[in-house]
């Protein structure tokens, strides 16, 4: 068989493997979704017939309806019946919308797909452009500006960004409508394209910011690597400018990783759309999911969760197939694997290739300095450049060594000081919030709706409660809950990550499958499902956030243990006859601990943001607890009254707390990670 035919067969086989994996994951997700919905304490009979009808119903009728809705039937039997109906196109009937679930999904999906599509494309383009600007201007003010923008954006909850945008551009400036997808009072026949566009622009802009940070920072790092490569040095020697190099050689290396990352960001953007649709009252799948969860509409909630998983897995499937088709190294690696090449050597070689550019050395055309050297002259040219580069590197390293100790010491002191300041501020927030908890709930209607002043720096709310005390108390609650959830999640991550690395390939495959399953459903949708199953309250939210946040840390633990297992000192310890327990305690734990601690600290801000988001949607903490999500959710009803401080100050406090955790985690990483300790 020819090489071209083998490559074509591989592409077909690779695509089929990915499709089979997609189908298997979808069946697994459907079971998890059905199990979570079934675990809800809500009585399906009472929910379907209503409270009044249920109270007047005879016991015989209740028993008959309970049998009809599967009460008391084993879970697997109910799942099989539900799955059979779904495969036949019958997804059940929505209780809240009094219509078939498929009809509701079809009507809402059109609005959501339009919003998601615009935001997805805009975030990809904006992220790529910002990453290119930052990479070209490395360590200069444009680079610092872009990185600062990305870090602030990553710490900003999507729903608060939507609240601020709605308040500024709709309430104050009047540039956009206050919400919805079409003007109120207009029939569908009278709605124009301009009406639809005016209602979708602001939500799409807010949602597009969700995926910008990851793509921009990834593109920046990739472009920095490209600009430091050997073939770019040749291009500079030919007299090409930086932007010519980026246009001719950089973009072709950046587009494929950015495209893959963009497809992988569908989960994040869909989760953001749930929050954006709720803020802007935009009638899409996200708002329908919230309505279904709060209203006990189990068929609709299950349908939306399955559809969201289809979108996420579909994006990952597309990215995997495109990568396999476009990047020939994946085809070569898969073919060599089937040919029986050693796995460790292959992984080492392929991991090294990933860091290289995706295109060969550019052709040198033109005359003079850009003249094409002959084939026989190329090795001598490469040797000359390599020798020159080596001499330059040696001289630079010598200068670095002469001056590094003092600079490294100053950097470590500054980094440690940054960590201490961030930790002290976070501890102060928690203690102050606990101390002011009584004041945060004290009402005084004679002081209601006061603007910020000296006596009340954050103003007061409609019940006369001091917003500074309320904000600190709510932030303290969110921080404590995030810490508890992150610690529980870290325990899960350690157990599963260590099991994947130490218990053989079968266990590793099962845990990897479980991670893919967890990452397949958007976090917000999964949190809604878990909250629906467990109910509101502190521990319900803590368990939900913990269950959804362990996969990334588990991957880190697994990778660190695998790297430690193959290290020279572990192999030497085995040859010396040391027991597995000795190796684990004296070698693996010290090796894995730094990355684990850093991963744990960096998990805190994500847990806090997700707690605030799920509480904002109404599934987290009850309204009587002054959490930040509750405060910001209540502020939505007062955006048009001029009480801007109800939304602004609590949101700024939340962003500041998340950035403090990020700063503490990054500082800790530099202090204890040997790979970055010299920065």
Automatic annotation (TrEMBL):
<feature type="transmembrane region" description="Helical">
    <location>
        <begin position="113"/>
        <end position="136"/>
    </location>
</feature>
<keyword id="KW-1133">Transmembrane helix</keyword>
<feature type="transmembrane region" description="Helical">
    <location>
        <begin position="642"/>
        <end position="661"/>
    </location>
</feature>
<keyword id="KW-0812">Transmembrane</keyword>
<dbReference type="InterPro" id="IPR035906">
    <property type="entry name" value="MetI-like_sf"/>
</dbReference>
<protein>
    <submittedName>
        <fullName>Peptide ABC transporter permease</fullName>
    </submittedName>
</protein>
<keyword id="KW-1003">Cell membrane</keyword>
<feature type="transmembrane region" description="Helical">
    <location>
        <begin position="254"/>
        <end position="280"/>
    </location>
</feature>
<dbReference type="GO" id="GO:0055085">
    <property type="term" value="P:transmembrane transport"/>
</dbReference>
<feature type="transmembrane region" description="Helical">
    <location>
        <begin position="300"/>
        <end position="326"/>
    </location>
</feature>
<feature type="transmembrane region" description="Helical">
    <location>
        <begin position="196"/>
        <end position="217"/>
    </location>
</feature>
<feature type="domain" description="ABC transmembrane type-1">
    <location>
        <begin position="109"/>
        <end position="323"/>
    </location>
</feature>
<feature type="transmembrane region" description="Helical">
    <location>
        <begin position="510"/>
        <end position="532"/>
    </location>
</feature>
<dbReference type="Pfam" id="PF00528">
    <property type="entry name" value="BPD_transp_1"/>
</dbReference>
<dbReference type="Pfam" id="PF19300">
    <property type="entry name" value="BPD_transp_1_N"/>
</dbReference>
<dbReference type="InterPro" id="IPR045621">
    <property type="entry name" value="BPD_transp_1_N"/>
</dbReference>
<feature type="transmembrane region" description="Helical">
    <location>
        <begin position="148"/>
        <end position="176"/>
    </location>
</feature>
<feature type="transmembrane region" description="Helical">
    <location>
        <begin position="479"/>
        <end position="503"/>
    </location>
</feature>
<dbReference type="GO" id="GO:0005886">
    <property type="term" value="C:plasma membrane"/>
</dbReference>
<feature type="domain" description="ABC transmembrane type-1">
    <location>
        <begin position="475"/>
        <end position="665"/>
    </location>
</feature>
<keyword id="KW-0813">Transport</keyword>
<keyword id="KW-0472">Membrane</keyword>
<feature type="transmembrane region" description="Helical">
    <location>
        <begin position="538"/>
        <end position="557"/>
    </location>
</feature>
<comment type="similarity">
    <text>Belongs to the binding-protein-dependent transport system permease family.</text>
</comment>
<dbReference type="InterPro" id="IPR000515">
    <property type="entry name" value="MetI-like"/>
</dbReference>
<feature type="transmembrane region" description="Helical">
    <location>
        <begin position="416"/>
        <end position="436"/>
    </location>
</feature>
<feature type="transmembrane region" description="Helical">
    <location>
        <begin position="581"/>
        <end position="604"/>
    </location>
</feature>
<feature type="transmembrane region" description="Helical">
    <location>
        <begin position="20"/>
        <end position="39"/>
    </location>
</feature>
